[in-house]
Amino acid sequence: MRTLNILTVCGSGTISSTMVAQKLKEALAADGISITTTEVKPTQVLGHVEQGNYDFVVNTTPVSGNIPIPVINGVGFLTGLEEEEFLEEVRQVISRILNNEAN
Amino acid sequence: MIRPEFVVLQSQASSAEEVIRELSELFLRHQIVKESYPEAVLNREREYPTALPGKGFFVAIPHTDSSHVLESGIAVATLQTPVRFGLMSDPDKLVDVSLVFLLAVADPREHLALLKRLMEILSDTERLQKVLGASSADEVLDVMQTSIA
């Protein structure tokens, strides 16, 4: 399976997005899924998505604009309160992406 | 990283700004942040607030760019009366925050381990309750350090 490329977003573009990125890497590694992540501020999302080859976005602060790839809210994952729900959504998005590529 | 002098118990701060200034002052006194740090945190908090839901109460993790930080640290305040912060996921929504972790992160990549452990604490209701009810700085350190090495 190919490595997925994920954009993580928070207000500073560093702290929360790095926490989410690291936690997601570990959670998905357990499923045998490897990812690369880039951490950005909300204002940098559209530019990155347009220029980079990202599969989906995980955000802890709201992201505005028309983002052409899936955007998944990562706050419940950050706090751990909705960890399973979040991971389930991520897995669904990933399998949709990979299925589309296979077809 | 976290020291007894970075812990404030039962702060009487009556706003997010007051508690951020109170904790920033501790960082400034110990010279782990630059003079620009408090304003940078406050500006960021206004634009991208940092309150997160815990189980039964709210926690805030104000912070700013590493460019204002000299050395990493975490300051903790429990509040006598909760103060209002905006929600990280919904900035226009104000919530009553009982526990504040002010973060000074010199380099997020280098401090992944610290951030990861902080996240463990944020998702551990029992541990948060212990910090919330702590009656001494050492008690807070004990709870934090079983996790933050």
From TrEMBL, chain A:
Which residue spans adopt a coiled-coil conformation according to this UniProt entry? none
Q: Which SUPFAM superfamilies match?
A: PTS system IIB component-like
* Keyword Membrane belongs to the record: no
User: What's the protein here called?
Assistant: PTS fructose transporter subunit IIB
PROSITE patterns, per this entry?
Answer: PTS_EIIB_TYPE_2
Record flagged with keyword Transferase: yes
Record-linked Gene3D superfamilies: 3.40.50.2300
GO molecular function of the protein, one example?
protein-N(PI)-phosphohistidine-sugar phosphotransferase activity
What GO terms describe the biological role, i.e. biological process, of this protein? phosphoenolpyruvate-dependent sugar phosphotransferase system
What InterPro entries does the entry give?
A: PTS_EIIB-like_sf, PTS_EIIB_2, PTS_EIIB_2/3
| UniProtKB keywords | Transferase
Q: Where is the PTS EIIB type-2 domain?
A: 4-98
From TrEMBL, chain B:
Q: Where is the PTS EIIA type-2 domain?
A: 1-147
Alphabetical list of Pfam families matching this protein: PTS_EIIA_2 (PF00359)
Give the InterPro entries listed for this entry: PTrfase/Anion_transptr, PTS_EIIA_type-2_dom, PTS_SugarTrans_NitroReg
Claim: Transport is one of the keywords in the record? yes
Keywords recorded for this protein, A-Z: Sugar transport, Transport
Q: Where is the signal peptide?
A: none
Please report the name of this protein according to its UniProt entry: PTS sugar transporter subunit IIA
Question: Organism source for this protein?
Answer: Brevibacillus panacihumi
Lineage start = Bacteria, Bacillati, Bacillota, Bacilli, Bacillales
